[in-house]
Amino acid sequence: MEENILNQELLATRLIEEEEEEFHHLNNPADGIKPIIKKYLGVPTHADQQGNKFYFSDTDAKVEVTVVSDEIIRVRLAPHGVFLEEFSYAVPKLEQKAIVFALHEDTSEFRVSTSLVTCHIRKEDFFISFSDSQGHITSSDAVPMHWEENVQFGGYYVYCTKTCAEQESFFGLGDKPTELNLRGKRLKNWNTDAYSFAWNQDPLYRSIPFYISVNEGIAHGIFFDNTFKAHFDFGAEDATKTSFWADGGELQYYYIHGPHMMDVVKSYHYLTGTHPMPPLWALGYHQCRWSYYPEAKVKKIANGFRENKIPCDGIYLDIDYMDGYRCFTWNRKYFPDPKKMIKELAADGFKTVVIIDPGIRVDDNYSVFKEGKENRYFCRRCDDYFMEGHVWPGRCQFPDYTNPEVREWWGGLFDELVQLGVAGVWNDMNEPAVFGAGTFPDDVRHQYDGFRGSHRKAHNIYGMQMVRATYEGLRKLMKNKRPFTITRAGYSGVQRYSSVWTGDNVASWEHLKLGNIQMQRLSTSGISFCGTDIGGFSGEPDGELFTRWIQMGTFSPFMRAHSAGDTKEREPWSFGAPYTAINRKFIELRYRLLPYLYSTFWEHHRYGFPILRSIVMQEQEEISNHFRQDEFTYGDKILVCPVLEPGQQARKVYLPKGKWYNFWTYELVDGGKEVVVPTPLETIPIFVKAGSVIPEYPVMQYVGEKEIEEVKLNIYFSNYEVNSFLFEDYGETFAYEQDIYLEKKFVVSGKSTVLTIQQSMEGLYTPRYESYYFNIIGLPFAPSKILADGKDVPYSIDDNKCVEFKFTKNFKQIEIVK
Ligand code: MIG
């Protein structure tokens, strides 16, 4: 029909032309070319199988369905039957798990099935849908996959539209500064330097094209692995449709089955990787500012921490440490002897982290520029001009980090910094940001690991490849030591190379709220090691806001205070009483809980669990939980609800089902409901799941300040069985990759007359401390004796009725008997 109308229109134009001109080419071949319109898949005629790949064609376009694992099926579209070469920065190696799968055909559809998922390809219209093993349709096309040719650049705009159910909710997508549930929103992925961003501003610094849908209690994920500018619509334009599309590249997505959100996140980690174990010190408190200089100022800040007895591990040098903002140089006026300074800071327990930007000053007397120029490492425009733009150093050129040779070179440039003793590198401005223009023009060319592309294709992965080059370089240079890296820009998989912070936020209560959501969302989107600029980058927090932010930051996987240069002093003691003492108490709490956070990090690294978990991730079957965004758990044992309003003396907190202990009062509370918790400035609501074993270190001013002589085990009584884990290793080497670590499992089970704690261990590491100090909380009876591996041990009972005793770290079983 549509074609007929078009032909008639063409005919009409031709007739008019004929009337106007006396002469024309009767056989002009261009007359037959149709105008560009959206094209849809036709009808699939047949199916071909090649190993774990299945091909369906409408005689022109082709669709490939790849079975990756029981849970994961990938779909690709080739508009004219030719697929792009397989390459992905997000999924470096697509490993197919050995599983059983099969193709079936009947009169209405083709079906590719694993034991958990079936992908249906409907014969009538090429609709693709997915169902689980109980036959629930979880995802279904609303129109066939479609595309539109791009005349200017070549290739296609590619589109996928699925149905959106009435009560379907959506989560994920990285750092979007909006409500946790993305239902009703339209969002875009295009890495952007967004100074002082606002609620609902889009896009920001990162592109994570991965979302999770929850409908009728069942979760599935879609990972649209396409690096071009990409768009998502979650029932915004049409409440019955969910769409994702991109300005180029391939329509390629992974369908990831749940049924739980946690399963989806774990499978997404299986595809894109997890964060390597950070050095333990990186989980401590970090102090940053734009900028601490000269050296005397840095020292003064460092001393301030030790004098105020506020723990701190990381201190940052922002762009002013450089000579005219030239990367890999020092301003010798401010820092005459960086090696000596870094050494002295290290002796006082501070690790120095320095910033690095991608812009390299055009300056023939500057070795980094000269090397890059001679080796043709800088990005060029389509007509071969260099990509030049202004950033901090002035006129700059930019390394093409998508070229493996450039990454190798960049990584090596850190040699001197590492020799000076620098422990971590902060990668900024890598969206990439350019003053005035915002970013690179579309026509900049990139090597793209041999797969070539314009900036349209490379923009969203540029920053990730920069921090990858940084991380891989540091890893080589630091030998067996774990490097610490942090980045502003990123794409799916950036977690394999770096932690992230949420960029230039604002000192406001609204941003405290936003930060809470952003961290949960990042954690759901593969990026667990994340944090906000505590206190807000621009603007002035008052003491209350700063303290509430420190309290939330205590439970951010990455904890750093940072502020712009035009703001007032912003250290944890800057606001005086009563704030300093409260800030200290919370930063100390951070250090007490380090072994718990470190073990949670191991669960992330090794098993693909996120560190922060939103309430919906724990109880997705309950619709009201799809809209909870204040409270979250930190690991799986501690629930936290930051205070997000000024002057708030009490607030509502939802506790998931089960029994919870108030962390401060030890009061036992039933979950599955909201409770009201007092929130004077000194505290925020923190609850511990009954049955947990929470390991605790003594407070230290920095990691490694003292030898740990004893680890405290806080054991919360429960009348059901609960497992807890403790991970221990050297904390700063890669020995864990050779299995030199210890994974301890504690099983706690309580009855009315006895509480049993069992310990089992796996691994080759031996911690240096000898004993545990047990603190038993919530015991519902007075003990008559404590048997540890069959021996009677002495104990005491404190004012909170907690039972305390000491025993060897190698214990197998402890019984506390009524
Ligand atoms: O154009 O290096 O987000 O954390 O302090 C601003 C100076 C550049 C932006 C970063 C911010 C950093 C600042 N940078």
Your description of this structure?
This protein is of the alpha+beta class and about 800 residues long. The chain has 13 helices and 54 strands. The strands form eleven sheets. Strands 33-32-30-27-23-22-21-35-34 form a nine-stranded parallel β-sheet. The protein has an eight-stranded antiparallel β-sheet with strand order 2-3-4-5-20-17-16-13. A hairpin with a 5-residue loop joins strand 8 (about 115-120) and strand 9. Helix 6 (about 405-410) runs parallel beside helix 8 (about 455-475) and helix 10 packs parallel to helix 11 (about 580-590). The protein is globular, with a radius of gyration of 29 Å. Residues about 1-20 have low confidence and may be disordered. It binds ligand MIG. Ligand MIG binds near residues 290, 488 and 562. Ligand MIG binds near residues 318, 428, 429, 503 and 504.
Produce a short descriptive summary.
This protein is α+β, with helices and mostly antiparallel strands and 818 residues long. It is 20% helix and 30% strand.
What is the molecular shape? Answer: globular
State the distance separating the first and last CA atoms: 84 Å
Overall pLDDT confidence: 95
Sheet with the most strands, sense and barrel status: 9 strands, parallel
Task: Tell me roughly what share of residues is in helical segments.
Answer: 10-25%
Widest β-sheet, arrangement of strands: 33-32-30-27-23-22-21-35-34
Low-pLDDT windows of residues: 1-20
Bound small molecules, by name, code or SMILES, are: ligand MIG
